[in-house]
Fold this sequence. Notes:
With 241 residues, the chain is mostly beta strands.
Amino acid sequence: xxxxxxxxxxxxxxxxxxxxxxxxxxxxxxxxxxxxxxxxxxxxxxxxxxxxxxxxxxxxxxxxxxxxxxxxxxxxxxxxxxxxxxxxxxxxxxxxxxxxxxxxxxxxxxxxxxxxxxxxxxxxxxxxxxxxxxxxxxxxxxxxxxxxxxxxxxxxxxxxxxxxxxxxxxxxxxxxxxxxxxxxxxxxxxxxxxxxxxxxxxxxxxxxxxxxxxxxxxxxxxxxxxxxxxxxxxxxxxxxx
Length: 241
């Protein structure tokens, strides 16, 4: 099981080449600095909603664990969204941002989602969007098997708006909700997501070559906070075991 504190050494502290609209940088929570969920066998809660969040688009973030085969925990705070499953266990974490009220994801030239993460095993990410007119779009993205999966090295991935499968219709200029599912389909995977944002680093036309293009991006993490988180998670993990 990885310690997120180790990611600090490999983090890339550079600026994005264009302005970005941050969906969430996981730097805040409603109470105590952290939003936390865990499997029901260890007391839950398996779902939690925080409101009034300055760091999240729409101000409302919901964490939900589901399809668990055993022990799993997740938390958001101090600049990271952490999702861990115990050795031999699998599961999914859904993060939903609501209250967006018709946000325009193309503002500022936005043409893609960008996110930075670390992992120590294979993962998939599923993004689902709904708009204020009842339309929806979904995309499933498998982490590049050739990218680092050592639990230390940050990987930056992008997902073009053009790669979404549209259900009926979808207006990227009037988004009501954004949902991200992190799927730990390989047993015992630890992962950390540092931000989800939109930007316009590619032209507004279909990209010629699929997904998984690494791009530089800003990373705002609290070094001391991460070390504290890692220690807390180790203690919590030992108690769960």
